[in-house]
Amino acid sequence: MLSFVVQLIVFVGVGLLLTAVPEWQNNVLLNAEITGWPGYFGTLRFNAGLLLFAYLTFRYLHKRYSPAKTLVVQCTLWGIIGLVIEGIFIGHPPWSDAIQYGMFVYWAVVFGAPAIFVLEQAKPVRLKLLVFIIGTDVLMIGASIALLNVDPTKGLLLLFTIFSWILICTIIVSFFFRAVGYPPKILLLLSVAIFVSLAEIIVPFPLDFIIFLTVMLCSYWYVTKRLSSKNMSLQK
Q1: Distance separating alpha carbons of residues 126 and 114, to the nearest angstrom
Q2: Are 230 and 184 within 8 A, CB to CB?
Q3: What is the pTM (predicted TM-score) of this model?
Q4: What is the mean pLDDT of residues 151-176?
Q5: pLDDT per residue over 128-140, tens digit each?
Q6: Domain range for residue 66?
């Protein structure tokens, strides 16, 4: 029972650490929405509740699959759940101006990456990942405040927020690969992140959404096929 509670606290805590800064940039600095829904504190409470369910899905998957499969399915599942929530409750359907890829990766990382901190096999990368998360949080806060002073129209801050968190979440995904003993293709991940984000900004709907779905399906196929048999059969 104690192990369950400790893992739950760690999982939720890491998830909130991952979501606190981007939501602060979006809700507080860009939209001046602190209270209410979807204000800053309302979003954090909502995400804290969802993180409880995310931990339960992680435990369910981990009992049935290897750590590699568990992380792949956990991130994919919550990326899809995030797109549904964004489209129905927050007003970011596929035909809106929202960057679907960015939202997918954001949800996948916030509700999937905390699993790395409770998987025994991922212990070698935990400290580095934690340092990276805290370091980028501090950098994002400082840079956001500086950009807000430089450009009161918030245009630069919006671009910085979108691309910085897409890149940061993409690098965190590389830690996921390391956690299961698979060399991360960082340049490939970053190239995909930049390409799909730019495509969704430039290309009109529905082509932009088709590009996003195609890339995500290809990425999922690549991960599941290229993970070696050794990595896919890691003991729990």
Answers
A1: 10
A2: no
A3: 0.90
A4: 89
A5: 999 999 999 999 9
A6: 2-232
